[in-house]
Design brief:
The protein has 137 residues and is mostly helical. The protein is 67% helix and 3% strand. It is built from seven helices and two strands, in the order E-E-H-H-H-H-H-H-H. The radius of gyration is 13 Å and the shape is globular.
Length: 137
């Protein structure tokens, strides 16, 4: 399978979905997640419903649900993110890998890979947010 059609997030990074409604819901959900709004989960669930193969949306939903104390659901969402890497960019695959490590409690490896990832993609806001949140916990 080749690369999926894509959109860009608010910082210009590619997000691999071919569904405009999924891209819009992801962007809204990510903004809400970064501002610690409980409405993030609803927007991100919508993104994954519209495009069930949208790995970044699944990973953002994993972070949102874990933040709400729903670790089991968060892990299921992270698994869905990892299962939907076909057509994703290298940046998206690394993004999912870093956050998967964080959710698994492998903070040291996540921090190393996350720093490397952010050197290459400094505007990957969810990775930066997740690294800061988990390292502060």
């Amino acid at each position: 399978m080749g690369p999926r059609p894509s959109f860009h997030d608010s910082t210009g990074l590619v997000i691999s979905t071919d569904q405009p409604a999924a891209a819009l819901s992801y962007a809204a959900g990510l903004e809400l997640l970064l501002s610690s709004s409980p409405d993030a989960t609803r927007a991100l669930r919508h993104a994954t419903t519209v495009d069930p193969h949208f790995g970044l949306a699944w990973m953002a939903l994993a972070v949102a649900t874990c933040t709400e104390g729903l670790a089991t659901e968060g892990n299921r969402c992270a698994d869905r993110a990892g299962a939907n890497l076909a057509g994703s960019t290298r940046r998206e695959r690394q993004h999912i890998e870093v956050i998967t490590m964080l959710l698994a409690g492998d903070l040291r490896r996540a921090a190393v890979l996350g720093r490397e990832h952010l050197r290459e993609y400094p505007t990957d806001l969810l990775v930066a947010h997740a690294l800061a949140s988990w390292s502060a916990a």
